[in-house]
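Section handout, structural biology tutorial.
Before the tutorial, make sure you can parse a SMILES string by hand: atoms, branches in parentheses, ring closures as digits. In the record below the ligand is zinc ion, and the chain has 46 residues. In the tutorial you will relate the predicted structure tokens back to the input. Do not try to memorize them.
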Amino acid sequence: MKKDVICGMKVREDTEFVSEFQGKEFYFCSSKCKEEFDKNPLKHSR
Ligand SMILES: [Zn+2]
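Predicted structure of the complex:
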């Protein structure tokens, strides 16, 4: 399981909501969380 860095939920690695930033993959529970991350990946990836 991966952690959704936006809402803190645990997410499966086979989710369709994945973003890559600085060579790392980030997994999200929903398109909303993914969009939030994509708006400011630097802030959320720390
Ligand atoms: Zn989420």
